[in-house]
Design brief:
By secondary structure, the chain is of the alpha+beta class. It contains five helices and ten strands. The N and C termini lie far apart (50 Å). About 7% of the residues have low confidence.
Length: 199
């Protein structure tokens, strides 16, 4: 009985901290046509505890959430408690991205393209981004908990390089066509909005 209770407690804890819901299907069709928009940043460096965020560019995007992952147990997770993979263009179309298996692990993401006739790996690369979200306010941090896989979201903030007073560094990507280590975007998130996903 005690073992069963322990299992239930562990499952409940996992669900509370890590589970992310899935939004209802809206059917086929592109719902976010344009890629993210970036422009020169005039923001000053930001101090968060012993982390220092150095602005690179301002960033705005409307995109479909294809995957999401919460993280709490390492330096990156302390600063950016959620990472989302977003898609635009054909990667915002359910009839396309449902044929692409996307997974996240250790702050990276990868995909398995099950229908190359629908979309090429190169288009997946240039139509998706793995964005680590640093909430600028408590309200935005709370709003992260409402994100669902399949949501259409608007994101606005600043892409930042991160360093710690201990010397540890975490650079952001500012490109849509890089891959591998340091290819994820680190976004100091100033505004988040969830929109109806209509095509």
């Amino acid at each position: 009985m005690k073992k069963l209770l322990l299992v239930l407690v562990l499952l409940g804890t996992w669900y509370h901290f890590y589970h992310i819901d899935t939004a209802p299907s809206v059917g086929p069709g592109v719902v976010a046509g344009a890629p993210p928009y970036q422009y020169a940043s005039e923001s000053n460096p930001i101090s968060l505890g012993d982390f220092i965020l150095s602005p690179r560019t301002e960033f705005e995007a409307q995109a479909r959430v294809l995957a999401a992952n919460r993280s709490y147990l390492d330096r990156k997770g302390w600063l950016a408690p959620m990472a989302i993979v977003v898609g635009w263009g054909n990667m915002s179309d359910e009839s396309v991205y449902n044929n692409v298996d996307i997974s996240q692990f250790n702050h990276f993401y990868k995909w398995d393209n099950q229908s190359p006739s629908l979309i090429t790996d190169q288009e997946i690369l240039t139509s998706t981004a793995n964005i680590h979200l640093i909430p600028a306010t408590k309200e935005i941090k709370q709003a992260l908990n409402q994100i669902r896989i399949g949501d259409l979201v608007t994101l606005r903030g600043t892409l930042v390089n991160v360093r710690r007073t201990t010397g540890w560094k975490w650079p952001t990507s500012t490109s849509r066509d890089d891959k591998g280590e340091d290819s994820g975007e680190i976004l100091y998130l100033k505004a988040l909005e969830t929109l109806p996903a209509r095509n």
